[in-house]
Amino acid sequence: MHQSYSDFVMLAALLAARSSEVSGLQVGDVDYGKNLVVIRRQVFPGKGGLVTKPTKSRKERRVPILEPLRPVLERLTDGKEPEDSLLVGPKGGYLTTATVRDATNWDGIVAKLGLPDLTRHGLRHTGATWMADAGIPLHVLQDILGHASMETTRGYLHPDDRHLASAAEQANAFLSTAGQRKNARRSSPATRGL
């Protein structure tokens, strides 16, 4: 399988980007000095060929370069011109979500992994969830994802059972000390006269 397909998956997940935005990335969109990738455009199949347009929100957005993605970006940008496509398919053209789906037998692979509902767009949700789990504030995630509404951003976050169990532990710890805090208030000098 061509390396560009796994690069596509890494970029989509670790930038929490739409597939069409990954297709539209150029070498000059990677800013190592600021540790950012600037998402400026999307490329997708249309009538008569590929269409290049601004992002869905028509605004550029900046996404931090996560460390697991750095070596991939360094390999993809090395020795290339700023206007070159970041990802190039095995035949030298743009890599689109349809190309990735067909060339990798995406549906068959995710079915074998027991994840039949995982789509290429689902990688964007995965990346957003990872960033939220890492503690990135919701308003920052909203900017990274380019959402106009925080509610839309919330819809992208999917905590797994491990995180729900952790939330239960935190709540239980709080509740177990709540009784102690209540008793401490009753016997504190400030409340004795009540």
Automatic annotation (TrEMBL):
It comes from the Bacteria. Coiled coil: none annotated. Keywords: DNA recombination. Residues 1-169 form the Tyr recombinase domain. GO terms for molecular function: DNA binding. InterPro entries: DNA_brk_join_enz, Integrase-like_cat_sf, Integrase_catalytic, Tyrosine_recombinase_XerCD. SUPFAM superfamilies: DNA breaking-rejoining enzymes. The keyword Kinase does not apply. CDD domains: INT_Rci_Hp1_C. GO terms for biological process: DNA integration; DNA recombination. This is Transposase. It comes from Microbacterium ginsengisoli. The lineage of its organism: Bacteria, Bacillati, Actinomycetota, Actinomycetes, Micrococcales.
